[in-house]
Design brief:
alpha/beta; 2-enoyl-CoA Hydratase, Chain A, domain 1; Lyase 2-enoyl-coa Hydratase, Chain  A, domain 2; 2 domains; 6-stranded mixed β-sheet; 4-stranded mixed β-sheet
């Protein structure tokens, strides 16, 4: 499944989406809409448990939006792009499985925001990341102000967004912006290993756990506790719950059906 700027390749229970828009993998309305369609299709595929997002470019993971789009200061274009960015990255954030960004090059602006929309981030040791929109009179409009703050806290979010501070991979690891740093050239390999780990868990249980973890963004803790108990019971209506428990008791590997 492919178009000019995005390529999807399925490897077992893993979907790999490759950003392929040289030279810097900038986003367009078309590619953002295509990302939404891809995520919707993957959500319907019971054989897909995880997603890895990568770049075809050795220098750039993604550089965000093409600033030429905003040169005429047209608010209509701005509104359309903001909506497209928001819908695309929200769809990625709500992917029912686990999404992992394999960051192999510079991740700037919307390029960092798409990584922030993933569940996990693996970055190579030479990578640099930034949300530099304010330097050109703009702001991160694809979840950057919210997702970055949730990950690294208000202080570092302000340093990166208000001061335009660029962070290296070691610093990103230190502040919690990424979950793991790997040697140059190893981000995809490590991301695929993590995706394989996901496949060892029940996909139904993973989806429920992800829903609970992310519900903390909008729900009070007490509501989360209640939902946790409800979803626990709901799992007993799935085939995977019975398979998982009985496989453990029988000392064999579970065979998940995602049902």
């Amino acid at each position: 499944m492919m178009n000019d700027t995005l390529i999807v390749d399925k490897k077992g229970h893993i979907a790999v989406i490759t950003m392929n828009n040289p030279p810097a993998n900038t986003w367009t309305v078309s590619s953002l809409n295509q990302l939404v369609s891809m995520i919707e299709a993957l959500n319907q595929d019971e054989q897909i448990y995880s997603l890895v997002l990568k770049s075809s470019n050795e220098k750039f993971f993604c550089a965000g939006a093409d600033l030429n789009l905003f040169a005429d200061s047209d608010p209509t274009i701005a509104r359309d792009m903001a909506r497209s960015f928001g819908e695309a990255f929200e769809a990625l954030s709500q992917f029912r499985g686990v999404s992992i960004a394999a960051i192999n090059g510079w991740a700037m602006g919307g390029g960092l925001e798409v990584a922030l929309a993933c569940d996990l981030r693996v970055a190579e040791e030479h990578v640099q990341m930034a949300l530099p929109e304010a330097k050109v009179g703009l702001l991160p409009c694809a979840g950057g102000t919210q997702n970055l703050t949730m990950l690294v806290g208000e202080g570092w979010a302000k340093r990166m967004i208000l001061c335009g501070e660029r962070v290296t991979a070691p610093k990103a690891l230190d502040i919690g912006l990424i979950e793991e740093m790997v040697p140059t050239g190893k981000s995809l390999e490590r991301a695929m290993e993590m995706a394989e780990q996901v496949g060892e868990q029940s996909p139904k249980a993973v989806a429920a756990c992800k829903q609970l973890i992310q519900s903390n963004r909008t729900r009070h803790w007490n509501q989360g506790y209640m939902l946790e108990r409800e979803l626990f019971v709901d799992l007993f209506h799935t085939q995977d719950q019975k398979e998982g428990v009985n496989a453990f008791l029988s000392k064999r590997k579970a065979e998940w059906k995602n049902r």
